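Deviations from the work plan: none for this task. Representative record:
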Amino acid sequence: MPAKSQFISLREAQSPFFVGIDLGGTNIKVGVVDDWGRPLSWLSLPTEAEKGPEDAARRMGEAVLKAIKKAKLQKHDISRVGLGSPGTMDIPAGMLVNPVNLKGWDNFPIRDRVSFHCGLPVAFQNDANAAAYGEFWAGAGKEYHSLVLFTLGTGIGCGIIIGDLIVDGENSHGAECGHIIIDSSDDARLCGCGQRGHLEAYASATALMKRAEELLAEGHPSSLARRFARAKPQNRNTKLIFEEAEKGDKLANQLVMEAARWLGIGTVNLLHTIDPSIVLLGGAMTFGGKATKTGKRFLDAVTREVKQRAFPTIAQRVKIDFASLGGDAGFIGAAGIARLEHRQEA
Ligand SMILES: [Zn+2]
């Protein structure tokens, strides 16, 4: 995904500087960010998880140095590096515990190994929390005091930021709101985590594709049937649902509205728990955002569900919107977490 943010030159930038790393199952993004959350440089490398965590830690360390050079800065200009990583993890210990998307990386001291390879101190956080912090610091949430970010993709990631507090919990499992229970029946849908009835099993891209295939198998007429049949397996995804919804296909639209409804219900649970200023929807499955009919309808439907079900004061005041940093939220937020740790220690 190309960078969505506006890059700034060194002349415009405000020191101190930070480097953010967004470690994903497929790619790693690394970028230098200034004190206001504006990126100066950016690069991407394949994760190549099969080569093991030490090899990746070394390449991440090298990428940090490359990104610094690309920003026309020196290593001593960088106050700290931030690393956002998929879980499960032990955040205070700087350890990966059993990361589902990084097979064989169990019990690895990733924070200290990346620090060793780049020669800079490293702050460590969950990737979804880092993305939420990115939106809070420099994105769609920057005018607000508290936010929830849902990252809608294969699964549903979530991050909660209240002031400068990142809600990561006592055991590094906080804000896992893709796994809040929205259906307690015995035959509720099965979630990717193995439990039933979780939000992710109803409103993620995986859930939407499953539901589409069920409805098509029941014989509901839709242009999706032809699109699915013709697409290569790797291209059979919610982009097709989005495109057909844009063209007015009834079933495709129904699928988007169903996901919005479930997401609205999940959102109300969070509103009644933490009462945040804003809830943001980001990730790969946002149906083109506000630039498209489907994206607007999706956001309206989530908002409508929230207004109907939340306490009146909350329903009236909470903002619900799309995230704005796209695929850059992760590294910008990781840099923001480095900045936070740097400021707390200063
Ligand atoms: Zn789950």
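The first helix runs from residue 53 to 70.
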